Amino acid sequence: MNILSLREDELIKILLKRDFKAFRVKQIFEWIYQKKASSFDEMTNLPLDIRSFLNKNFKLYSLKLKDKQISIDEETKKYLFELEDGYLIETVLILSEKRRTICVSTQVGCSIRCTFCASGKKGFFRDLKAFEIIEQIIHITKDTNQSPTHIVFMGMGEP
Predict the structure, then answer these.
(1) Confidence of residue 99 (pLDDT cuts 50, 70, 90)
(2) pLDDT for 38-84, tens place per residue?
(3) Cβ contact 20:53 at 8 Å
(4) Amino acid 155: pLDDT
(5) For the chain, how are helix, strand and coil distributed in percent, rounded to 5?
(6) E strands along 1-159, which residues?
(7) CATH level 3 topology of 3-57
(8) Where are the domains of the chain?
(9) What is the bridge-based pairing of β-strands 76-82 and 88-95?
(10) Long-range residue pairs from 95-102, CB within 8 A, at least 24 positions apart, any chain
(11) Among the four residues 61, 145, 146, 149, which has the most C-beta atoms within 10 Å?
């Protein structure tokens, strides 16, 4: 199970069943969302038994970076990620003087089938899970070492 798929209250219940303290969830989320930890082992303020439990029972990240393209002016970066089920999605970072906009994918494919659009030609496969959308933002933020000023949900089926 991807830990990003859990709400705070859900993870608290899981930890309490193992006799771990509820406050550990705030530490875990701080490592994930603020410090951008790459693994549970990096969460050094957690006891070893909690890190071991997390490693055995959860995934921290599931997206795999397959490709990254940078425009000549370096204002646009396009990331190609592979999902656990093998589908590919794109995430785009648009940089300007005052903005860092991350455009996240929300679906694999599109059901509208516009003739001019590559996504539409392939058809619709599925909606992304919330953690897959969140993970796109985390990956781009880690790659650039900067938080976005804007997040755009790329719409499928827009003319």
Answers:
(1) very high
(2) 999 999 999 999 999 999 999 999 999 999 999 999 999 999 999 99
(3) yes
(4) 65
(5) 35, 25, 40
(6) 64-70, 76-82, 88-95, 100-104, 107-109, 124-127, 150-153
(7) DNA polymerase; domain 1 (1.10.150)
(8) 3-57, 64-153
(9) antiparallel
(10) 98/149, 99/149, 99/150, 100/144, 100/146, 100/147, 100/148, 100/149, 100/150, 101/148, 101/149, 101/150, 101/151, 101/152, 102/136, 102/137, 102/140, 102/141, 102/148, 102/150, 102/151, 102/152
(11) 61
Tell me the two tokens of residue 53.
């439990």
In 32-87, the DSSP E strands lie at: 64-70, 76-82
DSSP 3-state of 7: coil
